[in-house]
Design goal:
alpha+beta, Tubby Protein, Chain A, 15% helix, globular
């Protein structure tokens, strides 16, 4: 009000959570952007860090996976948590169906991933892996479908109308021994590489005794935010298919 002194307000360069983890500030949402996906509109890289579960390391029983999803500055964008029961996790192992709930920094569920139970053997090309991505929950925005190939991991990224948009091709030997493993994101004709999903080497001890993995996802800055979210779903599918088994189990 006029005549009252103006009190200086504190300025925070980075908002953070209770544990001091820096949060990425929410940018203005683009047109037709599902709520919560505005964080993806201004970035071209995502870092996915799986948390180490001490109970799983000590007992060998599979626990629900949890992940922190960050931008290239280390600011947290989302938190992802698997939602499956004990029997499903420990009977089906890495092939298990799951629901992955992705929450923003305010605890709101903004993305849901659904992986149905499918055969993970390359000998059965009629029943291949897939994952559906919903944002907001209940509204499909895309799918990741495994394509049969005798040697290479191959996937197709589809939009909400089941139309093919991009391709993903992995290496012939999926081994993360002392090096990153890159899955290239390509155009439909596979002539141009537009991004990649990289499983990052996390060190000998962590790789040998846990199945906690780190991933990096790169894509064009101007890519549709829905397709960026679908690539995040592809990252989780790749993690479960190729890297979820711990060193002891292998």
């Amino acid at each position: 009000p006029v005549g009252f002194p103006v009190q200086p307000q504190p300025v925070y360069s980075q908002p953070g959570g209770p544990a001091g983890i820096p949060w990425m500030p929410a940018p203005p949402p683009p047109i037709d952007c599902p709520p919560g996906l505005e964080y993806l509109s201004q970035i071209d890289q995502i870092l996915v860090h799986q948390q180490v579960e001490l109970l799983e390391v000590l007992t060998g029983f599979e626990t629900n996976n949890k992940y922190e999803i960050k931008n290239s500055f280390g600011q947290r964008i989302y938190f992802a948590a698997e939602d499956t029961d004990f029997c499903t996790r420990n009977c089906c192992g890495a092939s298990r169906p799951f629901t992955m709930r992705i929450l923003d920094n305010m605890g709101r569920e903004v993305i849901t991933l659904e992986r149905p139970l499918k055969c993970d053997s390359c000998c059965f090309p009629c029943c291949l892996q897939e994952i559906a991505i919903y944002a907001p929950p209940g509204v499909p925005i895309g799918y990741v479908i495994q394509n049969w190939h005798p040697c290479l991991p191959r996937f197709t990224i589809q939009n909400e109308r089941r139309e093919d948009v991009l391709k993903i091709t992995g290496p012939c030997v999926v081994c993360s021994c002392c090096a990153d493993v890159d899955f290239e994101i390509k155009s439909l004709d596979e002539e141009n590489v537009v991004g990649k999903i990289s499983k990052q080497w996390t060190g000998l001890v962590r790789e040998a005794f846990t199945d906690a993995d780190n991933f990096g996802i790169q894509f064009p800055l101007d890519l549709d935010v829905k397709m960026k979210a679908v690539m995040l779903g592809a990252c989780f599918l790749i993690d479960f298919m190729f890297f979820e088994r711990s060193g002891n189990n292998e």
